[in-house]
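Interim report to the steering committee. The following record documents the input for Phytase-like domain-containing protein (296 residues).
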Amino acid sequence: MTLDPSDHPRGQPHLSSASGLARVGRKLYIAADDEHHLVQLDADDPVACPLRMVQFAPGALPDDHAQRKKAKPDLEVLVHVPPLTAQQNGLLAAFGSASTPRRQRAFVFPVDRHGELVGLPRTVSLEQLHAALHGRLGEPNFEAAFFDGTHLHLFQRAHRGHPYNAHIRYQGAPAARWLAGTGTVPPPLDIATVDLGSIDGVPLGITDAAAWPAGGWVFSAVAEDTSNPYDDGACVGSVIGWCDARNRVVRCERLKDAPKVEGVVLADDDRLWLVTDADDPARPSELLELRLSALS
């Protein structure tokens, strides 16, 4: 994904840290996990349209890699929260991974019915949300979420030190009110383990998920060779898969050349859009299209 260097906060000619991906009306949004920016694309033709970078937090992040890693909000989750009533507009919520205190924040943007951001985001602490899960999950590593109209689904990503993914469900209306600033942190309804196995001994960790219209959900997962939620590692493999409503994996397809896919969203009945993050500012992120009929 390329852009005019003058439009990038570090003067890069490309986006290099694409993480969460969400569709809101006629817009696609990407979280750039080591920037203070979201990226907006037109869902009608995301390949041809220019990237628009939208700053959500003031100030610039350090150029030094280690210092930038410590300071960044690490937005890994983008989720569209539809309006609770016909008189309201929806929200776009960008969650930090919560793997450090600086990353325990979500930025919540109001959106109009066309998918445009309207007004400034509000910052929501994730500390209480994580505290309610700590005894069950240990160190947090939030990487994926989707809202199916009834429930908010949040996912913790597996790694070598904790080889099982977690799927956490919340009642949708209380979760939407909390994100909108009119309610308290909702308690989890249930927490389920999702074991996707491993590639070359490295556990597959869920990196994004989206509701499937016929029920269940589709997910992206990568086998990243790291033993904790903070350090990066080599991506030894990646997959796209489907789970039914009972969290049972019904299909899993390995992706050629092991792209580190960190975002997935439904484009239409036969296509998924995916975004990648190579963990290297010199390497552009990619927007990929996967035709489901090609998997038949």
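Residues 24 and 222 are 25 Å apart (CA to CA). The committee is asked to note this result when reviewing the revised timeline.
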